[in-house]
Amino acid sequence: MDPAAQDAKDQQLERFRAAPAHNALTTDQGVRVDDTDNALRAGRRGPTLLEDFHNREKITHFDHERIPERVVHARGAGAYGYFEPYQSLSEYTCADFLAEAGRRTPVFVRFSTVQGPRGSADTVRDVRGFATKFYTREGNYDLVGNNMPVFFIQDAIKFPDFVHAVKMEPHNEIPTGASAHDTFWDFCSLQPESTHMLMWLMSDRAIPRSYRTMQGFGVHTFRFVTADGRGTFVKFHWKPKLGVHSLVWDEAQIIAGRDPDFNRRDLWESIEAGEYPEWELGVQLVPEENEFDFDFDLLDATKIIPEEQVPVRPIGRMVLNRNPQNFFAETEQVAFHTANVVPGIDFTNDPLLQGRNFSYLDTQLIRLGGPNFSQLPVNRPVADVHHNHRDGFGQQVIHPGTNYFPNSLGGGCPAHAGSGGGPGVFRHYAERVDGEKIRVRSESFQDHYSQAALFWNSMADWEKRHIVEAFRFELGKVMSVEVRERMVGNLAHVNGGLAALVADGLGLPAPAPDANVPTAASPALSQENLMGEGIRTRKIAVLAADGTDAGQVAAARGRLVAQGAVVEVLAARDGSVQGAGGEALDVDRAMPTMASVLYDAVLVPGGAQAVSVLAADPAAVRFVEEAYRHGKPLAVFGEGTRLLTAARLPEDVVLGESAPSYGVFAGDGTASVEDVADAFAAAIALHRFPRR
Ligand code: HDE
User: Fold this and answer.
1) If you average pLDDT over every residue of the chain, what do you get?
2) In angstroms, what is the span from residue 220 Cα to ligand 1's centroid?
3) What does pTM read for this prediction?
4) What is the torsion angle, in degrees rounded to the nearest 10, for the CA atoms of residue 164, residue 165, residue 167 and residue 173?
5) ipTM above 0.95?
6) Are 383 and 389 in contact (CB under 8 A)?
7) I want to staple 284 with a disulfide (CB 3.0 to 4.6 A). Which of 2, 103, 235, 639 is the partner?
8) Superfamily per CATH, domain 539-685
9) What pLDDT is attached to residue 666?
10) Are 217 and 302 within 8 A, CB to CB?
11) Catalytic center at which residues (predicted)?
């Protein structure tokens, strides 16, 4: 790669990239190997010899290839990119990477699910991790967030209990990648502080369409600090440029089988295609003197600051533009840590954050096998590193000279950066602390239901329906009636209607409603208000067979591709089909290798012969039926409507009466293909029609 085009991190990584594989095979010691296919043996059919050092080395290395997976967030995918501020934030923070508009800082981001092991499916109902490592000139800053702005618990000391409860059950390691089981709901029903987060987990936020279409949140209240030591509370928000979009539950479950790598593949492929995912970073700023202006505690990670109360101020953008070259070396070995902060960013006394500041370093020590993991290429800062840490497993550095401080023999180096601080020197925020040593939870942390209700009240009707269905699904998988009842009882403090609907699905009596349930709403929480614009990178399937009207396909494709969509022609076999006019129409995918759940929209061109073939093909019929059921836009031309009939779509949809408002577009010949394609595109921009 052209060094001029490489950012500081990429240039650094270049030094660690192994030479191209055009060379002769060698051992670890660089000795050339003549044959790696046959072990050294005594006689043609004789026993293998111990002296075959190449064989032993090869197998031994292989035997040790695995490292422990992350105890949570084991399944993930990552990419490199950059962050650049829109304007200087030096009024609030002395962080160098936020000091100047357009100053690019290299980043590595890892997205993840939480519950499942490394090999679990991407589209399970779960929280998604959204961890960003900024390789700033003043050292690494890690913003280790999630795609939901709150958490299940308030104090990190509950984390082992929580994770034990949500992970696979200890006796049989079931279920993989799911929270729908007894121990999780047992714990949550007894720990009502989880209720707000449960509302998010039961919402569509827990089944994102793509990593590219989910928000990210720092969750905790952090602190910006200026050069002169002034603090401001800050909450971080990532907002995807493509809008916030989710799957529907039935679809998510099918994808888990059809393409367990669905989110990982989407991230990889969009970067390879040059469609770089982008997020805007926003901050909610609260002056220190306003710390107690809220009816919740800023230090409580089960609470948001409603955006209507403190607006999110956009401060910069992040673009991911480079895939890793080796999953293990980069995505698996990357080590995030909430305590990796740079001058200008500091902590608060949020007890969840305080515990995390211990946990992340600790977990890397076991996961990455010792204290030198920050020397791994992906983890190295681009800032210079000088200290007296020495030795340990996997030490890569030859340190000449002294290894203590103070010293005179080493010229006094590495020296203190200066007790007076100064640019680029980290100084802890001088917060005044005074208190007794007590194991208590503050009274200001005791309201567990108001913001759960705020979330519920803010949802659109279809979002509420999905939440009810999710609770019914999850609790329906719980065998303990006692746990079900307790959980439904908790929901009555969120909303009586919600609790009654969930109870009904479980065959339980509705619990007595709580008369004091709050009615406030925050429109910023609904996905209906987070749609984004346009159809870039949306995937559209065109169902074809011999006799398809290839002219319509070309015209519609032209229109859709021009707006950035990806259009793929599917037929029963790979290769090509013969269009109605005898021309060849290339097939992009054989239908048996794909499914409607892997597309955002479906187009059925006309052509009597082709539609007859498709209407008799269960795969094609299912394609249309499923896409409709999952709320996806459909466009049909001419005889294509017959496929809608074969898929048993409602008659008014097939006849086109209420179709456009349902996101189904039938080109009956009066409108041009281009016009129908444009209307179809506008529908795709809305993503789904969940009120069908
Ligand atoms: Fe984590 N978390 N966490 N977490 N977390 C880990 O660190 C932990 C929490 C988050 O892609 C572990 O390297 C404690 C909140 C992400 O590599 C571990 C507590 C949020 C990732 C750990 C929390 C997160 C992790 C496991 C309760 C959102 C994946 C492996 C106080 C703000 C990072 C590892 C990656 C990973 C501990 C709660 C986000 C064990 C003790 C809240 C995105 O250290």
Assistant:
1) 96
2) 12
3) 0.97
4) 90
5) yes
6) no
7) 235
8) Class I glutamine amidotransferase (GATase) domain (3.40.50.880)
9) 83
10) no
11) 73, 146
